[in-house]
Amino acid sequence: MIAVVDYDTGNLRSVADALRRAGAEFTLTAAPALLRAADRVILPGVGEASSAMAKLRERGLDRVIPTLTCPVLGICIGMQLMCLSSEEGDAACLGIFPTRVRRLSADPDSASVHAVFPESPGAGRSTDAPECLPGNSRLKVPHVGWDTISALRTPLFAGLPEESYVYYVHSYAADPCASTIAATEYGRRFSAALARDNFYGTQFHPEKSGAAGARIIQNFLTLR
Amino acid sequence: MLAKRIIPCLDIRDGQTVKGIHFEGLRQVGDPVELGAKYAAQGADELVYLDISASEEGRRTFTELVTRIAARIDIPFTVGGGIASVEDAGRLLDAGADKVTVNSAAVRNPALIDAIAAKYGSQFVVAAIDARQVDGRWVVTTHGGKRPTDRELFTWARETVERGAGEILFTSMDHDGTKNGYPCETFARLAELPVPIIASGGAGTVDHIAEVLTRGQADAALAASIFHYDEIPIPVLKRALNQRGIPVRL
Q1: CA distance B21 to chain A (A)
Q2: Helix, strand or coil for residue B159?
Q3: Closest partner residue to B137 among A20, A121, A130, by Cβ?
Q4: What are B231-250's pLDDT values in tens digits?
Q5: A14 pLDDT above the threshold of 80
Q6: Which of A25, A70, A76, A93 is catalytic?
Q7: A150 contacts chain B (CB < 8 A)
Q8: B147 assigned to some structural domain
Q9: Which contacts (CB < 8 Å, 24+ apart) does range B57-63 have?
Q10: Does residue B67 form part of some domain?
C-alpha cells in the first residue's frame, strides 16, 4: 500500500490523480503506524517551508519519516523538508539529504518591482524593444514552467534521456551535494532530484510533468 | 534551459468548448476534457480553461468539469472566468486547478489578488489583463474588452505584481481575433516585470508567435482558434520555433 502524507499543507489532489492514472492504490494519512506499514510513502507539499515543517512536527512526523525503511519520495516542498535546512522562514528540516535550500534569487524585495515603469505612463519613452535572445532575459522568480534535467542517476530516472523536460514551480532550491541525482540550471545549478538510501526527492512536479513525469512515478512505484 | 511555453486556451460555456471572434459569434469546437487531452498529447505545455458561462448552473458545471480535467490531464492547467472571491478560487483549487486567473473582479477590487496570494501563494494567481489603445495610451478594459476603465496598463500590471500575482496574462483587445500578430513593443515593456508574461490575442502565424517570444520577450504564448481549427498544429508550431533557436519542449 502507498501512503501519501496528509499534513494539511493544501492540495493533495494532483498527486492522488497521478497515482490513479498510474493505476496505484493509495491512502491519504498522517498516522505514524500507517506510514510505517506502507511499502511506499510520498511526502507532497505546497506552501511555505517553515510552516510545513511545523505541521510535520505537530504530528510527530519529523521523528517518523527519517526512520522509514520503504522507498520515500518527497515532492517540491516535501523534498526541501528532507534537506538540512531551508532559508524560507529559516527552517531547520529533517536532515536526510546533506544540503541546504536557498532562494533562487537574492532579491525578493518588492521595492525592486516598484522601480519598474518609473516614468509617467506612456510618456516620453522609446517604444523600441531591445533585441533579446530567448532565455537571455533577467531571472524571474518563481521559476515556473518546463526545464531540463541532466546528470541523471539511479533507477528513478530509468528510461529517461538526459535533458528531459519536467515541470517546475518554486522560488527556493537545494544546492548540489553528494546525494544529487539530477541537476537543473536556473540562475545557478541546483538539485533537481536527490537520493540517499531509500529516500528520494524531486524539486519538480512529476505529477504535472506529462509522460516524463508519469515514467518517474512508475519508476518510483517499482523501485526494489 | 527554461522552455518557452505554448498554451492552448479553451473558452467554456455551460461545460462545452466555444471560441468567439472578439468574444462574439460563439461557435462550439469540442468536448473540453478530450480537447485538453489531445493538446497535452500533442505537446501543449499548459492549458487555460476560461469559464464564460453567465448562469449559476453554468458555473457549477464548470467546477465539475475542472475535477474531470484534473483527473485526466497530466500537465498544469489554469482556470479563470468570473472569479470574484477567495472562496471562488479555493473551490477551483479543491477541484484540482493549478492556477486561477483574476480579471474584472481584481480591477474592481484589487485586494482580491492579495487575498488569494496570501492564502494559496503567488504561484496560484495569474493576473489576466485586457487592454486597448486609446489615443496612444493603453487603457485596461473589463467584460471582454467592452468596458474601458480609468486604469493604465503598465501601472496596473505593476500593481498586480506588487499585490502578489505570480504571472501576467496580457491580451490586447485591439489584436485579439485579428490574426495580425501581437504588439511586441508592449510585451517587451511588460517583460521588465519580475514575473512571467503570457502573450495572448492576435496569433495568426508561426512568425507572430516566434516574434512575441523573442522581440516581445514573452515567456509563453497563448492561443485558441489556430489550435482549435488545426490551422497551426502544436507539433508543427513547436518544431518551427525550435528551428528558430527558441527553447521549447519537444
Answers
A1: 28
A2: helix
A3: A121
A4: 999 999 999 999 999 999 99
A5: yes
A6: A76
A7: no
A8: yes
A9: B57/B14, B58/B13, B58/B14, B58/B15, B61/B14, B61/B15, B62/B12, B62/B15, B63/B91, B63/B92, B63/B95
A10: yes
CB B12 within 8 A of CB B62: yes
CATH, residue B32: 3.20.20.70
Ordered domains of chain A (ranges, CATH):
2-107+138-221 (3.40.50.880)
Look at chain B and count its residues: 250
User: Do residue B74 and residue A135 have CB atoms under 8 angstroms apart?
Assistant: no
User: Structural domain tally of chain B?
Assistant: 1
In contact, A58 and A149? CB cutoff 8 Å: no
Q: Does A115 touch chain B (CB under 8 A)?
A: no
Q: Are strands B16-21 and B24-30 parallel, antiparallel or unpaired?
A: antiparallel
Query: What are the beta bridge partners of residue B79?
Result: B49, B100
Q: What are the φ/ψ torsions at residue B35 (nearest 5 degrees)?
A: -65, -45
* Mean pLDDT score, A164-179: 96
Strand ranges across the sheet with A91-92: A91-92, A85-86, A100-103, A172-174
CB contact A40 to B (< 8 Å): no
Write out the three cell numbers for B154: 503598465
Which helix H or strand E contains A181, and what residues bound it? strand A180-186
CA distances from A92 to A59, A87, A102, A179, A208 (A): 16, 9, 12, 19, 28
Contact A207 B185 (CB under 8 A): no
Whether residue B248 is contained in a domain is answered as no
Is there a contact between B4 and A113 if contact means CB atoms under 8 Å apart?
no
Q: Is B130 a catalytic residue?
A: yes
The C-alpha cell at A46 is 505546497
How near does any CA of chain B get to the CA of A67, in Å? 31
Query: What is the complex's ipTM, to 2 decimals?
Result: 0.90
Residue B89 lies in a domain: yes
- Residue A205 annotated as catalytic: yes
Compute the C-alpha angle A97/A98/A104, nearest 5°.
Answer: 90
Which one of B51, B130, B176, B219 is the catalytic residue?
Answer: B130
Q: By the CB < 8 Å criterion, does A77 face chain B?
A: no
Collect all residues of chain A within an 8 Å Cβ-Cβ radius of residue B192: 116-117
Residue B150 domain boundaries = 5-243
* A138 in contact with chain B, both atoms CB, cutoff 8 A: yes
pLDDT in tens, A202-213: 999 999 999 999
Residue A76 falls in the annotated catalytic set: yes
Instruction: Tell me the one-letter amino acid at A184.
Output: T
